[in-house]
Amino acid sequence: MRRSRFLDPAVLARVRDLRLVARAVVEGFLSGLHPDLRPGAGIDFSQYRSFEPGDDPRHLDWRLYARSDRFYVRQAEVERDVVVRLLLDASRSMAHGEGRGSKFDYARRLIAALAYLADLGGDHLAFHALAGGAAVDLAPRGRRGVLPELLARLEALEPAGTWPAWSELAPRLAAARSRQLVVVVSDLYQQGRELETALGRLAARGHGVLVLHLMARDELDFTFDGDLLFEDLETGDAVRGHADALRPAYRRRLERFLEGWRRRLLERRVDYRLIPTDQPLDHALRALLLRRRALR
């Protein structure tokens, strides 16, 4: 199977075991990744020096030798103690889509792959699923301590309710002693500005913050025809009309919605990525690795 197929949402949707999905995605992703971006065992190598008598040959960088025809030794920096904290929007609007093609199922596979990648890199893991009355809260318990339970809880989750008050989670994030990389996976259909304000505060304290904004293809392109009834999955509000009449206003509002989130988050030094749910997962994995490197 070609590497790209391991990352294809249509292929992954047919695999029900999240551990298999995560492993296939990450291994397929890493096989095509430049070595400089690959995660290690929690240690960053960013400095090299010439090999000298007495150096341990095990520290020789053979790839660098192949390129330069000279022997270099890697010098390891101090190990970084970072918590990768994954926040999943499990509210009802994430159920949009059919079968295992919903935003939530894409998000579930994405969270599994992100967790597997972070665990492979030796980082501590924490996980929170946010929805009214169905929250999951897994605190970091040391390396390789959370991943099995995280995947099991992901398997059992179903989207329900509305996005809860951010105040329920914010104190735990703010109290963290270690540096964090906070990754939010959501369609961002939240009311108010609590989320962006809280994430901005985390970024201001030196934590890395990455928002992966999931949108279904029909939400982005308005691929609907005929007479329509749109119902908000969280509030129950409904709009009727013909697709041709609704399309121009919808596209204007969508543009304002996307640009508003992007601009406000970037102003707060929060990384933002729009992720269509028909897009291969490697885009989000690369964003995680780049943001993790910035915490060095």
Features:
296 residues; alpha/beta; Rossmann fold; six-stranded mixed sheet; 11 helices; 21% strand; disordered N terminus
Shape: elongated
Computed CA radius of gyration, to the nearest angstrom:
21 Å
Distance between the termini: 35 Å
Neighbour order of strands in the largest sheet: 5-4-3-6-7-10
Total number of helices? 11
Largest sheet: 6 strands, mixed
Class computed from helices, strands and strand pairing: alpha/beta
**Can you name the CATH architecture of the largest domain?**
3-Layer(aba) Sandwich
Number of domains: 2
Q: Tell me roughly what share of residues is in helical segments.
A: 25-40%
What is the CATH class of the largest domain? Alpha Beta
* Chain-averaged pLDDT: 77
DSSP strand content: 15-25%
CATH topology of the largest domain: Rossmann fold
Q: CATH homologous superfamily of the largest domain, by name?
A: von Willebrand factor, type A domain
The SSE order reads HHHEHEEHEEHHEHEHEEHEH
Write up what this structure looks like.
With 296 residues, this protein is an alpha/beta fold. 39% of the residues lie in helices and 21% in strands. The strands form three sheets. A six-stranded mixed sheet has the order 5-4-3-6-7-10, with helices on both faces. A hairpin with a 6-residue loop joins β8 and β9. Residues 1-7 and 41-46 have low confidence and may be disordered.
Can you summarize this structure?
This protein has eleven helices and ten strands. By secondary structure, it is an alpha/beta fold.
Chain-wise SSE layout:
Elements: H1 3-6, H2 9-12, H3 18-31, E1 45-50, H4 62-68, E2 72-76, E3 82-89, H5 103-120, E4 124-130, E5 136-138, H6 147-156, H7 170-174, E6 179-186, H8 194-204, E7 208-215, H9 217-221, E8 227-231, E9 238-242, H10 243-267, E10 271-276, H11 282-293
